[in-house]
Amino acid sequence: MPSTVNGVYRFLLTRQWVILTLVTLALIPTMIRLGYWQLHRHEHKVALNKVISDSLAAEPVPAESLSAPGQHIKHDDLYRRVTAKGHFDTAHEEVIRRRTNSDGEVGYHVLTPFVLDDGRVLIVNRGWIPANGAQTAFPKIPAPSTGEITVTGRLMADETTADSGIKNVQGLPDRQVMLISSEQQAQRLGKQVLGGYIEQTAPEPKGDSPELIPDPEHSDIGPHMAYAIQWWLFSAGVPVGWVILVRRERRDRTEAAAAEATPETAAAAV
């Protein structure tokens, strides 16, 4: 093809074809990178599923053994079942806005400080309650067990906008938040708060409210691998499509040139 660029392939030097060729050259590496991005998401999902499966299958350990004030929860400790002994501090309870239950209903998660025997605090997400009043008013919350108890839950890392996609809106009504942050809770309570929080799994609430958060799904790996393969197939198809268009353009131009030459040849013969 290069040897004939000054002939039938001269159209490749036109503005339209130069732009099309440059776009084609840009699309190929872009699609390859998108494929690798989906592959990395697939690998992350597989690794997270293993962490969740291993954590849920492990025996519970004291929360203090995996977390401390100001400490970030390690990735391998996510969803690990932990226990804590102490009492709930309902006077400083908060709710997390715009959370859904398993049926997709919008309500609140109940965030209750749990004071350990040594005075430190563990933040406990006691579960979901429906929005039972005006959004500007603090909702009615079923009381937890009173006195000294032992709670069990899944250990979770502090929530961030980057990880959750939830904007940390400021200026909300009193005792309402958008994200769970042990650092913010420590500032609010004026106490030492263990890093992260737990999603309570036991004891079960009386009257089934708050509604406990179910175990996370950890068998589905999602469509990311399929998407990665699709992007790579697209990247392979782009140059093939470019070649097909080039050949079609060359054929159309050749046929048009032949059609223009035919009347001239006939006139010369006469």
Global shape: elongated
Unreliable stretches, pLDDT < 50, 5 or more residues?
none
Mean pLDDT across all residues, rounded? 90
Return the structural class. alpha/beta
Whole-number radius of gyration?
Answer: 31 Å
How much β-strand is present in the residues?
15-25%
H/E element sequence: HEEEEEEHEHEH
State the helical fraction.
Answer: 25-40%
- What topology, given as strand order, has the largest sheet? 2-4-5-8-6
Report the strand count: 8
Largest sheet: 5 strands, mixed, barrel
**What is the total domain count?**
2
Distance between the termini: 37 Å
How many helices does DSSP assign?
Answer: 4
Q: Can you give keywords for this protein?
A:
transmembrane; alpha/beta; transmembrane helix; membrane; 2 domains; 270 residues; five-stranded mixed β-barrel; SURF1-like protein
Report on the structure:
By secondary structure, this protein is of the alpha/beta class. The protein has 2 domains: 2-43 and 222-258, no CATH class; 56-208. It is 37% helix and 20% strand. It contains 4 helices and 8 strands; from the N terminus they run αββββββαβαβα. It has a 5-stranded mixed β-barrel. A hairpin with a 4-residue loop joins β4 (106-116) and β5. α1 packs antiparallel against α4 (224-269).
Short summary:
The protein is an alpha/beta fold.
Which secondary structure elements does this structure contain, and how are they paired or packed?
Elements: H1 15-57, E1 61-62, E2 81-88, E3 94-100, E4 106-116, E5 121-130, E6 149-156, H2 161-164, E7 176-177, H3 182-189, E8 197-202, H4 224-269
Organism: Streptomyces albiflavescens
GO cellular component, one term: plasma membrane
InterPro entries: Surf1/Shy1, Surf1/Surf4
